[in-house]
Amino acid sequence: MTKHTVEENESIITNKMHNVQEAYSHADVFNRYILQTLDSFGYRYFDTPLKAEMLSPTELRVLAIEKGIKEAIKIKNETLRKGLGELAKKVSKEEGPTVARELRVQILQRESGKGGNAHVLARVSWGHPDHPFTPGTFVEKMSVLKFEDDIFFRNHLGAHLEDVCSLFD
Predict the structure, then answer these.
(1) Which of 70, 73, 35, 37 lies closest to 54, judged by CA?
(2) What is the mean pLDDT of residues 26-34?
(3) Cβ neighbours of 143 (radius 10 Å)
(4) How far is CA 168 from CA 76, 80, 97, 124, 138, in A?
(5) How far is CA 117 from CA 48, 111, 120, 138, 169, in A?
């Protein structure tokens, strides 16, 4: 094993950080990272997640349509509990009511290498059967992620997703 001086180690670290920053400055790499992270969280928090998708160049999501509301009733959010109660009254168990759960990342502003800000959202809809996420048919929890560069975004996206996923508790 080769021993490096402190200066050489600092140079290696700086070079690696520059390479990561350069890779993430490309929108496709940046978006691919978000999609992979959303997929990971989808499998962790949803029973049957769909593949994460880009809705637009600045909006990405993972969605799950879950049949039945038995598990969803355990959720602590009062607005959601009331909405699920309405759903149970309108749609019989035999008809198979569904609930949509979604994690979404909206890039509001991003300048490569200079940072930006994004909204990280968790949403649950009782708007069976289409789940259009119209007012009065869903609840959401949002976190604002302000980032000084793409590496900061990469290092903090998971924590923001974890925070908004508390909606599913």
Answers:
(1) 35
(2) 82
(3) 16
(4) 8, 10, 18, 8, 13
(5) 30, 10, 10, 24, 26
**Residue 140 structure tokens:** 């959401």
Distance CA 135, CA 156 (A): 29
List pLDDT tens digits, range 123-146: 999 999 999 999 999 999 999 999
Phi, psi of 94 (to 5 degrees): -65, -35
Mean pLDDT over 60-75 rounds to: 83
User: CA-CA-CA-CA torsion for 99, 72, 53, 153, nearest 10 degrees?
Assistant: 150
Binning pLDDT at 50, 70 and 90, where does residue 92 land?
Answer: confident
Question: Which CA distances in Å does 106 have to 58, 144, 150?
Answer: 6, 10, 15
Q: Measured between alpha carbons, how far is 146 from 64 in angstroms, rounded to an integer?
A: 27
